[in-house]
Amino acid sequence: TKTALVVLQSLTPNAQSVFRVLAEYQLANEKEEGKPVSSLYTKCRERFLVSSQVTLNSHLTEFKDHDLIKIKKHSDGQDCLHIPLVPDALGKLLQELA
């Protein structure tokens, strides 16, 4: 998680906020397979964190490149995002990022 924190701190505030939206969802919905990309996009647009899918995709690519997220196919065929950290570590990461 130290590496994740260093990477997140080097990103823009908006990118950090996008990660936080995903992390908070994951902590609140531990039984889920992940958050669908379309759902994350909608939530981030509502919060004015991204203005287009292209912007979100660039953040997601950065997260993926640094192993902050994993993308897997949901049972319904959608791409779902998952942060590969146990809930305790993820919660601690969010506290340290704040």
From TrEMBL:
Instruction: Give a single Pfam family match.
Output: WHD_ORC2
Instruction: Name the coiled-coil region(s).
Output: none
Q: Tell me the superkingdom of the source.
A: Eukaryota
BP GO terms, sorted: DNA replication
Q: Name one GO molecular function term.
A: DNA replication origin binding
Xref: InterPro entries: ORC2, WHD_ORC2
What cellular component GO annotations does this protein have? nuclear origin of replication recognition complex
**Name by which UniProt lists this protein:** Origin recognition complex subunit 2 winged-helix domain-containing protein
